[in-house]
Amino acid sequence: MSLSLWLSLAAVCAMGAMSPGPSLAMVLRHTLGGGRVPGVVASVCHAAGVGFYAALTVWGLGAVIVHQPVLFKAITWGGAAYLAWLGVKALRAGRGGALETGGVASRPGVAARDGVLVALANPKLILFFVALLSQFVSADMGAGAKAMIVATASLIDAGWYVLVALALSHSAVLPWLQARAHWINRATGVLLLGLALRIVIG
């Protein structure tokens, strides 16, 4: 995988992780309710769930490319439509109700469970990966390149949420995030629409 292609992948993964949603709300809840350790545990376990879905998607798409090229083309175009829909939805989002969360008592074990379940129980996550990773997986891609894609998605997800958990030890950070949630949504929307357009024009 070329550096420019990897940077595109990393940018989209980062914006996907940063977009306000149930995953961010879960990390905020455990951080505010239990402190830094439960927040970090929830973040890392969520990234493990993300990596699991990314691995299933990458290796599954590789098989589809080889054996069902017409189906892969349909997945690619469907993925473009889905990314465009997500982009429009992000642009129309307000100030991000997902950031309006209160602290509840939390322990590392509960945080670990919730981190994994929020990732695995989110059907939109697998749709997002199918739409996104179909643009980066090729028929001749080796196992090393596929592993790099999975690692990129997992590490960026973990890095962002761990950073959020660590930053929330300062009381001013959450209001700062809440005030700028609409800008995060807008940046995510523009990026997703740009990727969808890139797919359409080939």
From TrEMBL:
Domain of life: Bacteria
InterPro entries cross-referenced by the UniProt entry: LeuE-type
Major location category of this protein: membrane
GO MF entries: amino acid transmembrane transporter activity
Chain segments annotated as transmembrane: 41-63, 70-88, 116-137, 158-177, 183-201
Signal peptide stretch: 1-25
UniProt keyword list: Cell membrane, Membrane, Signal, Transmembrane, Transmembrane helix
Membrane association type: Multi-pass membrane protein
Any single GO CC term annotated in Swiss-Prot or TrEMBL for this entry: plasma membrane
Entry's localization field: Cell membrane
Pfam families: LysE (PF01810)
Protein name, UniProt field: Lysine transporter LysE
UniProt lineage: Bacteria, Pseudomonadati, Pseudomonadota, Gammaproteobacteria, Oceanospirillales
